Amino acid sequence: MSNLIYPFEWLVAWILYGWHSLLTAIGLPAASGLAWGLSIVGLVVVMRAAMIPLFVKQIHASRRMQLIQPEIQKIQKKYKGKTDPESRQKMTQEQMDLYKKTGTNPFSSCMPILVQSPFFFGLFRVLNSLDDIAKGTVDPIGPISKTLAAQAEKSTMFGAQLSDTFMGADTINTKIVTIVLIILMSVTTFTTQHQLMRKNMPASALDNPFAQQQKMLLYIMPIIFAVSGVNFPIGVLIYWAVTNIWSMVQQFYVIRHMPTPGSPAEQALHARRKARGKEIPTAATLESITKEGLADEGATAAHVQRQRQQPMGKKRAKQQGRKGGATANSSDQAGTDSDAVDRRD
User: pLDDT per residue over 91-145, tens digit each?
Assistant: First the structure.
């Protein structure tokens, strides 16, 4: 596991070093908690900016999942009460066919979390290793030398060291900073999920297993933060809190400008457009996303076909050219004969 995480530790260390160098170049003290804290914020900015294309795909996948929920429910009702393996297999196959037609991936919503996780644990390992790197008992990670590790280890924010945890805290300052960050993480997560369900989900999508899972996450995630957050270093909590704030602001922008079809947010957008005299876009339908999914599938198949084409030598190309010419001549001759028959008729 250590070897798998190390490349992410190394990358995290370089991003932190780059931001720290920039911040010290503009005048912040190298050993200050502000410089290292803002470096962690910079790490979040780099990570989330790089993930914007993935986030856009997640938005489209989430909308498609919501639009096809009525069709999913029809399939589930069709096989309701049937527990034999054959019926279960047919239900799964019909659902997979629907996903394929509409270009929907039910796991796309998990991708941003999965992509972030290695970097999250990489930061955790870097912060946990600062004391050992400063003492020289472990090797430096990337550009984080003994000197930089000692600076980062001793740096404080509001009297709390970035590598301190709530459970191992010796000062009241560390406990207070940790509690404030955990509360901030919980509130931002709750707000993000709440505005998603209240504003950006159509009424037809609120009564299904997918929506029920969202409701459960609404209340479970803050508990998870409270239980696990006491074991994480303050630097990791800063990363987590800033990431949640980014997600909340990003979600607010998407709901306001690119709402889900049929949701209250879409109705509010249409009202704003109407008040400004702008055209109201056509709502997405199952038919439209099915066409879009089939178009994506066709484009992928064409790309694979191009990739499978084998290189052709000059001799073979000439032979193919002669065959093509002969075929074309035959076609032309057939066309001429056909025209002659038509004129006789």
Answer: 888 888 888 877 777 666 666 667 778 887 888 888 888 888 888 888 889 899 8
Helix (H) / strand (E) containing 156: strand 156-157
**What is the SS3 assignment for 29?**
coil
User: CA 47 to CA 274: how far, in whole Å?
Assistant: 37
For the chain, the domains span: 2-68+104-262
The tokens for 195 are 């505005």
A 10 A CB-CB count for 217 gives 16
107: its two tokens: 């796991």
- With DSSP H G I counted as helix, E B as strand and the rest as coil, what are the percentages for the chain, rounded to 5? 75, 0, 20
Residues whose CB falls within 8 Å of the CB of residue 161, separated by 6 or more in sequence, listed in order: 33, 153, 154, 155, 174, 234
Neighbours of 288 (CB within 10 A): 14
Query: 174 burial class (0-12, 13-18, 19+ CB within 10 angstroms)?
Result: buried
Comparing CA positions, the residue from 196, 193, 335 lying closest to residue 263 is 196
Is 285 a residue whose pLDDT tops 90?
no
Q: How many helices (H) and strands (E) does the chain have?
A: 13, 2
CA distance 1 to 5: 6
